[in-house]
Write a structure and sequence with these properties.
Order of helices and strands: HHHHH
Number of helices: 5
Strand content: under 5%
Structural class: mainly alpha
Helix content: 40-55%
Largest sheet: none
Oligomer: single chain
Number of strands: 0
Amino acid sequence: MMNILANEAQSNDLKGLVKVLIGTDINKRIVKECATIFPLQNVYVRKVKVIKRPKIDVAKLMELYKDAPEITTQAKPEEEGAKNALTAEIAK
């Protein structure tokens, strides 16, 4: 089971590995490989721990997010009638 996951992690990049782990193909492969030892049912990959930090290639990272729309958060101007009720009571 660990060998299957390790081979998938080595052969795919991070984005591909997430797709493989979310899909059901890896679960079926684990059931098939472990059937000779013990019959398994309801096999799911629940948690994955990253032991070694991957080397980050900034160029590849920028390629992934070049098509993503930029999200800008700007404060909306207050209306004329809007005021803080707490400070209005203190000012009186």
